[in-house]
Design a protein that fits this description.
Blueprint (H helix, E strand, L loop, with lengths): L2 H12 L30 H12 L5 H14 L14 H11 L4 H19 L8 H11 L10 H19 L2 H7 L14 H6 L6 H8 L7 E4 L5 E4 L1
Antiparallel strand pairs: 1-2
Length: 235
């Protein structure tokens, strides 16, 4: 099992319990609400307004976002059989979360600075500009939460949060959901109460209701009712 499949199985098994982000934090920022379109996804009007406000704000700069994009691809590398983290817009998700939940801001910004500083000390260049082998070398030092080396603790905390955000952002995206095989609520086929059960109670369906309610050829049609209360099907 490769790293992606391992992370996927952990996420599915725990239903991302450990990745809960408490994304209902309240911000006091009074910046103007941007005219950003947000498609309906089960939010109240006030929640949609708040989302627009958050999307209009800026926290992470271009260098920080580029660094996170590199790190995210290390945590969940692209394959030929899975959508990339770029397709799943994981960087955008992290960018939103650090504005939605300000308590993560110090860990994320401080972690990027720590990573760049360590990269500069080791390779004389910032993290996003070093070779892939060197990036993985630095990440291997901070990828395990049980490491007790004091000088690595900032990096470990940062990497642990980024790993959680990466998995959450990826597997709650449309692209990530497809890799899980998640189909959501699917309609089943109801053929009515079994005939033997109806007979045991001395009941039966009236022919006209069989057509109206149990005709599977019409199961994908949208039903409307006329003024007499009769069903009229429209495709």
């Amino acid at each position: 099992m490769d790293r992606r499949e391992t992370l996927k199985s952990l996420l599915v098994g725990s239903l991302a319990t450990g990745l809960a982000l408490n994304s209902c934090s309240t911000l006091d920022n009074k910046k103007r609400v941007a005219d950003t379109e947000i498609k309906g996804y089960g939010r109240t009007r006030e929640e949609e307004k708040r989302d627009k406000r958050i999307l209009s704000e800026e926290f992470l700069n271009e260098h920080e976002l580029a660094t996170l994009a590199v790190l995210i691809d290390i945590i969940l590398p692209p394959t030929a059989h899975h959508p990339s983290t770029d397709e799943a817009a994981v960087v955008d998700f992290v960018d939103f979360i650090v504005k939605d939940i300000p308590k993560h801001q110090l860990t994320i910004r401080g972690g990027i600075m720590w990573l760049d500083n360590r990269s500069n000390r080791r390779f004389n260049i910032e993290f996003k500009s070093i070779e892939e082998k060197q990036r993985k070398e630095l990440c291997d030092e901070i990828a395990f939460p049980d490491v007790k080396t004091p000088k690595l603790q900032i990096g470990i905390k940062f990497f642990n949060l980024m790993r959680n955000l990466t998995l959450t952002g990826y597997y709650t995206s449309e692209a990530g959901m497809k890799t899980l095989g998640y189909l959501g609520n699917q309609p089943n086929i109801w053929d009515g109460v079994p005939e033997d059960v109806l007979k045991s109670h001395g009941l039966s369906y009236e022919p006209e209701w069989l057509v109206k309610c149990i005709d599977q050829s019409k199961r994908n049609d949208i039903a409307t009712w006329d003024e007499n209360g009769d069903i009229v099907y429209t495709a």
